[in-house]
Each structure stands twice: as C-alpha cells, then as structure tokens.
From TrEMBL:
The keyword Disulfide bond does not apply. Keywords: Calcium, Hydrolase, Metal-binding, Protease, Repeat, Thiol protease. It comes from the Eukaryota. GO terms for cellular component: cytoplasm. GO terms for molecular function: calcium ion binding; calcium-dependent cysteine-type endopeptidase activity. SUPFAM superfamilies: Calpain large subunit, middle domain (domain III), Cysteine proteinases, EF-hand. The keyword Protease applies. The lineage of its organism: Eukaryota, Metazoa, Spiralia, Lophotrochozoa, Mollusca. This is CAPNN. SMART domains: calpain_III, CysPc. Residues 605-640 form the EF-hand domain. GO terms for biological process: proteolysis. Residues 45-345 form the Calpain catalytic domain.
Amino acid sequence: MPGGGGRHAHVIGRTSRKARENPFVGIENQNYDEICKKCRDEDILFEDPEFPADNSSLFFDENAPTRGNIEWKRPKEICDDPKFLIEGASRFDVKQGELGDCWLLAAVASLTIDQKLLFRVVPQDQNFEESYTGCFRFRFWHQGEWIEVVVDDRIPTYYDQLIYMHSTEKNEFWSALLEKAYAKLCGSYESLKGGSSSEAMEDFTGGVTESIDLTSPPEKLFNIMLKAFQRSSLMGCSLDADPNELEAKLPNGLICGHAYSITACKYVDIQTPRVKGKIPMVRIRNPWGESEWNGPWSDQSEEWRFIPDEEKLEIGLVNEEDGEFWMSFQDFCKNFKKLEICNLAPDSLDEEELNARSKKRWESTCENGSWIPGVSAGGCRNYLDTFWTNPQFRVTLTDADDDDDDNMCTLIVAVLQKDRRKKRKEGIELLTIGYMIYRLKEGDETGVKDVNFFKYNPSAGKSPSFINMREICGRHKLEPGSYLIVPSTFEPRHKGDFLMRVFSEKANQTGVMDEQTGLDDNQVDSGPTDEEWEQGEQLRNNFKEIAGDDMEIDAFELKDILNTVFTKEFDFEGFGIEPCRSMVALHDGDMSGKLGFEEFKSLWRDLRIWKANFKNFDSDNSGCLNSYELRSALRNAGFKLSNSSLHTLVARYSNKEGQIAFADFIMCAIRLKSILASFRNSDPDQTGIAAFHLEDFIQIAMYS
C-alpha cells in the first residue's frame, strides 16, 4: 500500500488470519507469575508446551538425524548446587558450545559490561532454591516492543555436559537459559546458526545498529567508538571468513569469520625513553574464552613495559588465556573488517544516568509497514513504474545538531524485516531490502507521492546498500526540513512486514504518507466522444423501447440495455445481474428497485467516465488493470483511497493473478461511490466518523 505503514487491514468482528498465524502469539500469552503459581499450587515443575524438550526445539526439521544420547536435563540433575548467577554476571561467564552462534555470544559478552542493560534482559531475582518451579523468564526487545519470554529449565546435554552456550562455572546457568529463551523466540536452536551481532545487540537493548566497513572507515572513527562506549553502546567486530575453511585461525591468533565483542575503548598513557603521550587502544573478547590475538599489545607482549603500573591497574590488564586482549586502534583497523555499533534507544538511559555521566541520548520514532505483492511491494527505484507504490513515510527535522558548524542534522534510518529468522523453519529466507530518502518542498508534506514525483526529484540519501540482512541501517547528514523515506525490497512483489526506526540528535516527527478515503464530485467531464455520443443515443433508444409506459427499468432490463453496447467495446461476456443490481441501487434513492430516465442518464455519465479511465490506465491493453493501475484509474475518476482501503479493494475484486477485469472495476467503482455517498450524508462535518442505526447500516451495506 503506497505510504502504507500501520497494521494490516482488519474487518471488525471477523477472525484475523494474522492473529491465527502469528508465530509469537503463544509466547506473548504465557504469563510468568501465573505459571509459577500453578506449579506451586499443584506441586509440579514447569514443562513448556511452546518449546518442548525434543528435536522440534533443536532443529528446523524435528525428524533430522541427531547424534545419540542427547538428553534434556534440569540443572539440579546436572550438578549438586546449581546457581542462576554466581557473584553477578560478567563477560567471562559466557562460553560457546557446539552451536554456530558466536554472533550471539559476542552480543551477550558486550551486554554484561552494563549491568543495568543486562538485568533488564536477565532478571536477577531468579534462583533454584526458594519458590523454585523450573520456570525462568527473560526480556527481549522484539520488533518494536519489549516482551517477556518464559522457558523451563530443561537444557540439552550430552553425557551430562551442556551442548550449547554455558558458563565457565559448571554450576552457573543464566547464560544457558538466556540462549534457550532466545532460541525459543527465534523458533529453534538451529535458527541461531549464523547471524550478525547487531541482531542480538538490538534485541537486548532496543537500539539501532550501524555497520562500519573498516577497510574504508569514516573520519574520526576512534572518537565515534569512544563516544559510543561512553554512552553504553554495544560494539562488535569481525573478520572476513575464509572460503576454504570454517573459522580458520590466522598466525596472529585471530579467527576468520568469527564475531568478537569490544569491551573497552580508551586512550592509554604511554611513556618511553623518547616519547610520552596517549595511544588509542581497543579491548576485544573472543566468546570462545580462548584463542587470543598474539601481536603487539597482546597479553605479556613487550609493549606493556612502556605503560605505567598504575595505568595497567586502571584499565584492568589481566595476563590470562581468557579470550580477552588489547590491540592498538591502528592494528584493530588493519586486522578487522567490520565494526558494529548498537546505539541505545532513549529509554535505555534514565535521567539519573544522564546527569551522572553527562550523557546525551537519541530522539527516536518508529513506524510499522508491510510490503504486499500487487499492492505495496513495488521494488527499488530501478522499477520506477511501481516504486511509488511502496510504503511512504514523512520525517521532519526541526533543529540542527548542537555541534554542527554546517547547520546539518544527523539522521539514522533503520529498516528491520520482521519474523524472518523465526520463519526459516518454513524455508522463508531474508529479503533484500533498502530505502531511499527525498526532500519534500514546503507545503508538499502530505499525500502519497506518485510516479511523477520520483521521476523528476533526485534522492537526498539512500541506504548504504540493498542487502539480505534482518536490518539495513544508514547514517545521514541532512538540512533541517521535511523528507520522504521509502523502504522497499530490491525486486517487486516480495511479501514482508517491517519496522522503520528513525534516530536523530534533536526531536523529529514521523508519519505515514497517506490519503483519506473520499470522493471528489468536482471531476471535470470533458464530455462524450463521438463514439460515446452514438453509444448514448443507442442506449436512450433501447431504454425507451424496453422501459414501457412507466419509463422505468429494473436490473434485469438494465443488463440487456447495457450489454448491447459494452460487449461491442470490451471483450467480455457482459455485465452480470449483480453489477446491474448495484448500478440500480447507486441511483435508486427511494429503494424502488428501478431507474427512471434521468437516473439512467446519471448512471451513463458515471459509466462513461469509469470506462474511459479503465482504458487510459490499461497500458498493455490486456483488458485488465493490475493493482498499481487500479489506484491511478480510481484516483483519476475522483476516488481518494487510503492504503488500507486500496488493500481491501484489491483483495475483494482481483483475480488469482492479482488483475482486475473491466466488469470487476465497474463493480468496484459503483460500490465505492454508493458507500462513500451514504457515509458522507451521515458525516456532514467530514470528521471521518459517522453513527448509524442498525437498520440504516443494513440498508447501506446490503443495498449497494
């Protein structure tokens, strides 16, 4: 739906397939307190029916072959004294198991740096002792809102050893249960194979993640990282994968295709016999808990002798094989290829923290939208004829950044496609997505922009690329003003739901570019063509011949009159009785079921305008309109349609291929005009809200 944000169209009082098929509905309906109470009342331990202890929770295909002896055990069956947390949580608690989810572990390790962020995700008031029920809860940011995910504490083991993520302490289980809750959210443990740290960083914080190519870094990158660390942002980095070997180890100790977390950025005091100053340093952690960098500034390297002991103590230098190491910023940029920075959402920092740390936070807004094939899935700018049908959003930037000498505004745009990791089990992969930004002129900030707008206006910005990742994010510098953002898939007709978020340093305003459904009666009628004049004469003669003495016709007689003309002009079987009944109802104010001659003339004028628009917008002369042509044809005929209204019409009047035949187009126009006219009579002040008596509503709905 062009400009289409918001929710899918929904008919009040009817069951929504969206609700029935929502893969997360069971998770949302589980209540931790109710589960715990039930378990205590019945003296049982919780067994999660939404994520059972079997292969369906491990793999996409529950019949997939597995190695033997995998057992799901509770911590009390694995060790004598299980603990949820031992002396708090730290980055050293997290070790990777057999699952290829180092991206998740890197994000968890980063999360532990800020205890406030960590304990929002991992509530610390949980244990295996008092009031133990086998039920644990975790909180994740999921597609625009915080949700609670409940799991039982049965964990997959192999000969009493945890298979997947675990703590270095054998009796500590918060990390293993966190991974299980995240696997439940994503559909299965196998769904966690392969990913980007940015996904988990966002799901742990609700932030927006930027990806930076370290082969061509932006100016002042270390200052960007330093500010990010000071603002409690989560950061991760990685190397390119070796195509010939999975997670190949380089001579310098780094692992190809592996995700690392950045745990500190700092200018470190250095003092040599000839120079004294500060050197930019980065502390990095391998989630494996081993395999460290062995180059300059690695553990016990000779460079550390130039650092004063008090400085080593302040930065927490530890010479152990724990997976954590320091690098100079120069070596960091030279050896790593990608940096991810998760900018925290405004609600991640409270006023006390802002004042205590002299911090600032982002201003943010978000909008939901959908790409619907044939309606609002127009593809990228390469497909100009359909690009305009994509969802369109307006963002207004009022004030420039405080420290910007060029009077520019920072704008971060992030478009996240929903549910794709969860649906991998169904064979649904990530879409290739991106976005474009256009400047809006003053006074032109409302209404859907059509193909001509994009044909004659250059873009003011665009996503870094079109890419098949869960989210695409870009940073832009723009002048204050109003802008149009158009998220899209790369190719047309790809279905998906998305969330668009906008971050700026100063307050911004966003909204869906949409039209209010309505009818413009002031359409210019250029009059009939010579052919139409002849058709009109024929119809008049047919009317007088069939009408009889009362000079009125019913729907059956109207059908015969119209088809003598329209079957000659259009290749179709003629109007059926239902369209003709609706034509009579459109001009039959007294509900007599008949049309007089003056009413018939008004109907002929409507039909003449509608058939002319159908022909004008049937660009390939196929005898059908696609959904994009439908909106243009109806708009030209005086109908203004909101995005949800267009979606409704396409769903109601299109054929299997999403095409609208001539007879269906006429039926659509008749019903639209009839209903809009009736609604307007009950809404004289044009508020968009009308009250109906039940009897009146039935007449409008059934006799139209």
